[in-house]
Every structure is written in C-alpha cells, then in structure tokens.
C-alpha cells in the first residue's frame, strides 16, 4: 500500500497581483495535511471523506478533479511506456474545523495529492517541477483560473517565493503540443524556497468566516491596475530580501505596505473581522495582514517577542479569532 500526504498553504504576500503573469508572491506551507492511500484492486475505486459515496472512473462532478488527475497520470504513464492499472484511492483530511472550511487548502491540493500518490504507486520518480507542471496541466484543463501559487507551495512543502507564468500562453500550448513537449517547455515561472534569517513567531488567526476565493476574485479583479501590480511586486521583493537577510524593520514595513495595498484595492478584502485581526497588533512588536483572497478565512501575523505573542493571542481571542496554527521561525544565526 502507498500512503502520502500534502500540506496546506497560506499567502504571506502578493495576493491578487500574482494572478497576472510575471508577478511575485510569498506563500507559506502549513503542516495540516490531506492523506491519500492507494492499493492495487480489481476495479477502480475512488473515495474522499468530502463525500459519502465512492466512484469508479465514470465521470462524477464531485470527483472531477481527482478523475482529471488520473487522466493526466494515464497520459504521463504512456510517455513512460507504462499503463494505468486498477487501484483503490482513498483521500482523507478535509481541512475543516467545526464543519467549516478553514481556507488553508485549496481545491488544487487534491490534484497534487492524487498525482503524488499515483506516481509513488506506479514507481515514477517525478521531480517537484514535473509534479507542479502536471498539476497545473490538470487544473488548466478543468478551467481553474487561479495563480497556481497554492500548487507551487503545496508541491515544494516549504515557504516559497513564486513568480507566476503566463497562463494564457500555457493554455494555448495545451491545445497545440503533446504532454511530453509541454513538460519540456520553459513556462517562465520561478519557485524557490525562502531561507528566512529572521526569528519570529508565525501566527495564523482564523476568522471562522469561510470565504470563496473564486467569488472574491470576480469581485476584485476589475480593480487590479498597473499601480497595484508594480507596487505589490516591489514590496514582495523587498519582503523576500528582508526575510533572507533578517531585516526585521523592513519585513514589518513591507508587510504593512502590502496590507494597505490590499485594503485600498477593494473594500471586500478586509472584512470587519480581518481589520480587527490586523489592528490587534497595535503597539506590539508584530505585524499582521489578511492572507489570500480575504473576505474571511484567515490572517497571518509575524510576532517578534514572547510578550507580544501572548498579548496578540489574547486580543484575538476577545474578537473570537482562533489561532489555527503557530510556528517559531528561527534565523540561522540564532540556531
Ligand atoms: O484565499 P486563498 O488562500 O485561496 O488565496 C487566493 C489568492 C489569490 O491571489 C487572490 C488568488 C490566486 O489564485 O492566487
Ligand atoms: Mg482564502
């Protein structure tokens, strides 16, 4: 039996801008996992704890992404001179709390998970770049129009710096070239792990108000202009450099600026609760912002001393904001 997992993710910076080509974002892996188990079987059987029934390979709307991922794997196996043979695939880990989605996963994570599990099952050695490209190929075929930053983070399972590719161009290639050629092409993205050299506590505050990214994007998209794009890119690059060089002041400044930029982009991003989450850092050695599409879900904070951490958590609790995850990040000089 094969068993594997994929992590969750949250945006630190670069949301919305990253939907455009050649923009940048910083995205953090969150170690809350989804699990897949694959066993050989007489017949194909797919089950997910999201739904209370199993399916085979007959098209099913709920299982569409898993089934499309299997089609991708079948194509890829063919390239390697192998064939798809029946298996049973079980997926667990809804990334929910109190029956509400917590917004750290994405519909895309199930694609990465399915491909990763099947690659192990068929003993294929996929590089991270190949896994990323196969997942994106699958999602583009299904009409997903996200930036794929979530996919990059979930594949690399690390805090990453992501530079986006031109999705329209890759979509065109989908119709024109074979999968083999597509995998060989340079899509023009960058994904690199960020080596933070700054010590802080990373906190995730959950508003308990689920938001749907695709709906948020529809609301916000028309407001994205060149000024927003160039400022976001500049500040994400500053943040990247500040994290790597351990520059606390610049880290705080960039995150604040990026937060303000999102706040002015569209009023629906900072929900009243996300505003409270951010303002709770007042006079603490900390900086906070909304994460991802906003409108609910979670916000993040970087806190630089123990006292501020305890105080921020207390202030969040008063506002009914739950700490979903916390992690101590250490600069390499402090280790
Ligand atoms: O809310 P999340 O974690 O799904 O993040 C969405 C980020 C956007 O930039 C708004 C959309 C995207 O696909 O990058
Ligand atoms: Mg979200």
Automatic annotation (TrEMBL):
Statement: the UniProt record of this protein carries the keyword Secreted: no
Keyword Transferase attributed: yes
Residue intervals of the GHMP kinase N-terminal domain: 71-156
Stored Gene3D superfamilies: 3.30.230.10, GHMP kinase, C-terminal domain (3.30.70.890)
Keyword annotations of the record: ATP-binding, Kinase, Nucleotide-binding, Transferase
Pathway(s): Isoprenoid biosynthesis; isopentenyl diphosphate biosynthesis via mevalonate pathway; isopentenyl diphosphate from (R)-mevalonate: step 2/3
GO MF annotations, alphabetized: phosphomevalonate kinase activity
Domain GHMP kinase C-terminal: 241-319
Principal EC category: transferase
Enzyme Commission code: 2.7.4.2
Protein name as annotated: phosphomevalonate kinase
């Amino acid at each position: 039996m094969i068993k594997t997992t994929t992590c969750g993710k949250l945006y630190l910076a670069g949301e919305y801008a990253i939907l455009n080509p050649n923009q940048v974002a910083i995205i953090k892996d969150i170690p809350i996992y989804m699990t897949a188990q694959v066993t050989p079987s007489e017949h194909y059987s797919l089950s997910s704890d999201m739904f209370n029934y199993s399916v085979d390979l007959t098209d099913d709307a709920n299982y569409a992404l898993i089934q499309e991922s299997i089609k991708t794997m079948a194509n890829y196996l063919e390239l390697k001179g192998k064939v798809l043979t029946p298996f049973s695939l079980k997926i667990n880990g809804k990334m929910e709390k109190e029956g509400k989605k917590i917004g750290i996963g994405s519909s895309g994570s199930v694609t990465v998970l399915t491909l990763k599990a099947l690659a192990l099952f068929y003993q294929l050695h996929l590089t991270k770049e190949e896994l990323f490209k196969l997942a994106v190929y699958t999602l583009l075929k299904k009409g997903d129009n996200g930036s794929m930053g979530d996919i990059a983070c979930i594949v690399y399972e690390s805090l990453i710096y992501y530079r986006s590719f031109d999705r329209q161009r890759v979509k065109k290639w989908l119709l024109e070239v074979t999968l083999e050629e597509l995998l060989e092409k340079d899509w023009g993205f960058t994904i690199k792990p960020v080596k933070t050299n700054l010590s802080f506590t990373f906190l995730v505050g959950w508003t308990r108000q689920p938001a749907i990214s695709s709906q948020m994007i529809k609301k916000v998209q028309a407001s994205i202009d060149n000024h927003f794009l160039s400022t976001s890119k500049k500040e994400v690059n500053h943040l990247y450099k500040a994290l790597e060089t351990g520059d606390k002041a610049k880290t705080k400044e960039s995150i604040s600026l990026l937060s303000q930029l999102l706040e002015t982009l569209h009023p629906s991003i900072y929900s009243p609760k996300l505003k409270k989450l951010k303002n709770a850092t007042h006079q603490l050695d900390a900086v906070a912002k909304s994460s991802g599409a906003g409108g609910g879900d979670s916000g993040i904070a970087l806190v630089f001393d123990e006292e501020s951490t305890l105080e921020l958590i207390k202030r969040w609790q008063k506002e009914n904001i739950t700490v979903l995850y916390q992690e101590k990040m250490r600069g390499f000089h402090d280790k």
